[in-house]
C-alpha cells in the first residue's frame, strides 16, 4: 500500500530510538497514592504495553513520561540523560490521548500541521514543506483524502489515526498512547491494532501504550508491563507472562 | 377464515400529531401565553418608548440629543462601556480559566465571589465605593491628596460599572470551559506550543461564542447600569451624568419627550447589540455547528 520510503517519514535525519529508564518513580495526588515507587527499563525501539485495570497507575506513569505530570519522587532518563525536570515541550514525546483531543475548530490538515507551526520561527519549516509532510502523514495513516475535513466529520477510527499522525508530525523521540483503542468498537479495534504495529515498525520509535485489555497487550506488544494498584506486578514478553505469571493477580488478569 | 383475521377498525386519528407531544389545544394555549407575555412586557414598552420620543416629531428628538448635556451623557456612557467591557472580558477569561482548568483550595469560594455582584444591590456597591474612595474614605483621602479623584468623577463610574458587570463574561465561560476540559490544551502542549500560543490558537477559538455572548450581555448592562453609578457619580450635569441617569433627571423635571428620546436611544443601543449577536450567529452558523458537534 505504501509507495514511499517509510523510513523517511518521521524524521529526515533519523536519530536512533530512545531508551527509557524509569527509576523509583512515585506519584501521589494529595493523600491518594497513584504510583508506588516503580522502576522499569524500556529498550530503545520497543513496543511496550502498560497493562492493568483502572486505577492501577498506568496512565499516571505514561503522563509522567510525557511530562504532563511531575513525579513526587524518582527520576526518568532518556538515553541515560536525566529528563525528570524537562518541560512537556522539551521532551518531544508524541502523545495520543484517550479521546484523541483533536482540535475541533481546525481541519485535519491544520491539526496535523499544528506541531510544525508551533515551532520557533528559525526551525519552522516553510509552508510548502509543511504541506508535503502533512500529505505524507495522511498517506501513512492511509487517509490521504481527509485533509480538509473537521474532526466532527470523522469516524472514531479515523480520529484515532489523525491523532497518531498529529503526534508523529513533530518528529517525536518516542510515542506515548493512552488507551488508543479504548473508544472504538471491537471490529475497528482489531483493524487499528495492526495499524499501530505497522507504524511502529516503519518509524522504529520507542512506543508505549496503555491498555486494560490483556488480549490487546499480548497480541501487540514486545514487552508487557502488568500493573495493579500503583505497582508493577510483572515485566516480560507476552509468552513469558502467559507461561510464568509472577503473582496470582497476573495469573487472574491474564487468564480472563 | 378470512373473517377471523379482520382487525377492528383503527381508532380515529389521535388529536396530536405524535404520541409524545401535547394535544393541539395545549400547544396553542402555551404559545398564546408566551406571545401575550412578550407583547405586554417587551413589545408594548418598546413601542411606547419610541412613540413617546417621537411625539413632537424627529426635529424635537434630534434637538434633545444634540444638546451639550445629552452629548456629554452619551459620550460618558460609551466611554465607560468601552473601558469596562474589555477589562471585564479579560478578568472574566482569567477567572473562568482558573476555575475550569485548575484545582485549588477555595475554588467554591471564588465561584461564590464571582456571583457576588448579582446578589448585592448595586446601590450598596456604589455606597461601598463612596466609603472607600470618597474624601472621607481610607484610600480616597490619600488619592485626593495626590490629585486623583475617583468618586463623583469618571473613574468612579467606571469602577462601579465594572463591579456590577463583572459576572457576565465569567459566568458564560465557566460551564463551557469545564465541559471542554483540558485535553486539547494538553495536546497542544505535547506538540510543543507555548502557553500564549495555546491560548490564542486552541483555548480562545473554543470559547469564542460564549465569550461573545458574555461580552454582549456585559456591554448591554454596562450601558444601562443605574443604581451603582447613581451613587458614585454625583450626577453633575454635563460631567458625570450617564444616559440612564440623565433619563431619570429629565423625567423628574417633566421633560417627558426629552426623557423618552434619550430612553429610545439607549434602547436602540441595546437592540443594536442584539442584532449584532443574531447577525454573527447567522453569519457563522456553519462554524458554530461544526464546533458543537463532537
Please tell me about this protein's structure.
- The complex is a heterodimer of chains A (256) and B (294).
- Chain A is 35% helix and 24% strand.
- With 256 residues, chain A is of the alpha/beta class.
- In chain A, α3 packs across α4 (127-140), α3 (108-117) runs parallel beside α5 and α4 (127-140) crosses α5.
- The radius of gyration of chain A is 18 Å and the shape is globular.
- The model of chain A is unreliable at 1-13 (pLDDT under 50).
- Chain B has two domains: 22-53; 57-292, MetI-like fold (Orthogonal Bundle), CATH 1.10.3720.10.
- Chain B is built from 15 helices and no strands.
- In chain B, α2 crosses α14.
- The model of chain B has no long low-confidence stretch (mean pLDDT 87).
- Chain A binds chain B through residues 66-68, 88-89, 92-95, 97, 99, 101-105, 114-115, 118-119, 150, 152, 166-167, 169-170, and chain B through 183-184, 186-194, 197, 201-202, 205-206, 287, 290-291, 293-294.
In short:
The complex is a heterodimer of chains A (256) and B (294). Chain A is of the alpha/beta class and 256 residues long.
Blueprint (SSEs and pairs):
The complex is a heterodimer of chains A (256) and B (294).
Chain A: E1 20-29, E2 32-42, E3 47-51, H1 58-66, E4 73-78, E5 81-82, H2 88-91, E6 93-96, H3 108-117, H4 127-140, H5 156-169, E7 174-178, H6 186-203, E8 206-211, H7 214-220, E9 223-228, E10 231-236, H8 238-243, H9 248-255
Parallel strand pairs in A: 3-8, 3-9, 6-7, 7-8
Antiparallel strand pairs in A: 1-2, 1-4, 4-5, 9-10
Helix pairs in contact in A: 3-4, 3-5, 4-5
Chain B: H1 2-5, H2 24-53, H3 57-66, H4 68-101, H5 107-119, H6 122-133, H7 138-145, H8 154-165, H9 167-180, H10 183-190, H11 195-224, H12 227-233, H13 243-252, H14 256-283, H15 285-292
Helix pairs in contact in B: 2-14, 3-14, 4-8, 4-9, 4-11, 6-7, 6-8, 6-12, 8-11, 8-12, 9-11, 10-11, 11-14, 13-14
Amino acid at each position: 500500500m505504501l509507495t514511499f520510503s517509510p523510513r523517511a517519514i518521521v524524521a529526515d535525519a533519523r536519530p536512533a530510538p530512545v531508551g527509557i529508564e524509569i527509576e523509583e518513580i512515585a506519584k501521589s495526588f494529595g493523600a491518594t497514592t497513584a504510583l508506588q515507587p516503580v522502576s522499569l527499563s524500556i529498550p530503545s525501539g520497543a513496543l511496550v504495553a502498560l497493562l492493568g485495570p483502572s486505577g492501577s497507575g498506568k496512565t499516571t506513569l505514561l503522563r509522567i513520561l510525557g511530562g504532563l505530570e511531575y513525579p513526587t519522587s524518582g527520576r526518568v532518563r532518556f538515553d541515560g540523560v536525566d529528563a525528570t525536570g524537562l518541560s512537556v515541550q522539551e521532551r518531544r514525546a508524541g502523545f495520543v490521548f484517550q479521546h484523541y483531543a483533536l482540535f475541533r475548530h481546525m481541519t485535519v490538515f491544520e491539526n496535523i500541521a499544528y506541531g510544525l507551526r508551533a515551532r520557533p520561527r528559525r526551525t519552522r519549516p516553510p509552508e510548502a514543506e509543511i504541506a508535503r509532510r502533512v500529505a505524507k502523514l495522511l498517506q501513512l495513516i492511509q487517509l490521504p483524502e481527509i485533509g480538509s475535513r473537521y474532526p466532527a466529520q470523522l469516524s472514531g477510527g479515523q480520529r484515532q489515526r489523525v491523532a497518531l499522525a498529529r503526534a508523529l508530525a513533530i518528529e517525536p523521540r518516542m510515542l506515548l498512547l493512552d488507551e488508543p483503542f479504548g473508544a472504538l468498537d471491537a471490529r475497528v479495534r482489531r483493524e487499528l491494532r495492526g495499524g499501530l504495529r505497522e507504524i511502529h515498525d516503519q518509524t522504529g520509535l520507542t512506543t508505549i501504550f496503555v491498555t486494560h485489555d490483556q488480549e490487546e497487550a499480548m497480541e501487540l506488544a514486545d514487552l508487557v508491563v502488568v500493573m495493579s494498584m500503583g505497582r508493577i506486578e510483572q515485566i516480560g514478553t507476552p509468552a513469558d507472562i502467559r507461561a510464568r505469571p509472577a503473582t496470582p493477580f497476573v495469573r487472574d488478569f491474564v487468564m480472563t | 377464515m378470512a373473517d377471523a383475521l379482520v382487525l377492528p377498525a383503527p381508532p380515529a386519528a389521535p388529536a396530536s400529531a405524535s404520541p409524545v407531544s401535547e394535544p393541539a389545544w395545549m400547544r396553542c394555549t402555551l404559545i398564546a401565553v408566551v406571545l401575550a407575555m412578550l407583547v405586554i412586557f417587551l413589545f408594548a414598552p418598546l413601542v411606547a418608548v419610541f412613540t413617546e420620543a417621537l411625539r413632537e416629531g424627529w426635529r424635537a428628538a434630534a434637538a434633545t440629543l444634540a444638546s451639550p448635556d445629552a452629548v456629554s451623557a452619551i459620550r460618558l456612557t460609551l466611554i465607560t462601556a468601552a473601558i469596562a467591557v474589555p477589562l471585564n472580558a479579560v478578568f472574566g477569561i482569567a477567572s473562568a480559566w482558573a476555575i475550569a482548568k485548575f484545582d485549588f483550595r477555595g475554588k467554591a469560594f471564588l465561584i461564590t465571589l464571582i456571583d457576588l455582584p448579582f446578589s448585592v444591590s448595586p446601590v450598596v456597591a456604589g455606597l461601598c465605593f463612596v466609603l472607600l474612595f470618597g474624601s472621607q474614605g481610607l484610600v480616597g483621602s490619600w488619592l485626593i491628596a495626590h490629585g486623583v479623584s475617583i468618586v463623583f468623577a469618571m473613574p468612579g463610574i467606571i469602577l462601579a460599572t465594572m463591579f456590577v458587570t463583572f459576572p457576565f463574561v465569567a459566568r458564560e465561560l465557566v460551564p463551557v470551559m469545564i465541559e471542554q476540559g483540558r485535553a486539547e490544551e494538553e495536546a497542544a502542549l505535547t506538540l510543543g506550543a507555548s502557553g500564549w500560543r495555546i491560548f490564542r490558537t486552541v483555548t480562545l477559538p473554543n470559547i469564542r461564542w460564549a465569550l461573545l455572548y458574555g461580552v454582549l450581555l456585559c456591554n448591554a448592562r454596562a450601558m444601562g447600569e443605574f443604581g451603582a453609578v447613581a451613587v458614585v457619580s454625583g450626577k453633575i450635569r454635563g460631567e458625570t451624568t450617564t444616559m440612564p441617569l440623565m433619563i431619570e433627571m429629565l423625567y423628574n423635571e417633566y421633560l417627558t419627550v426629552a426623557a423618552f428620546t434619550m430612553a429610545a436611544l439607549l434602547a436602540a443601543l441595546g437592540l443594536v447589540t442584539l442584532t449584532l449577536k443574531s447577525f454573527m450567529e447567522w453569519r457563522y452558523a456553519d462554524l458554530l455547528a461544526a464546533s458543537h458537534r463532537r
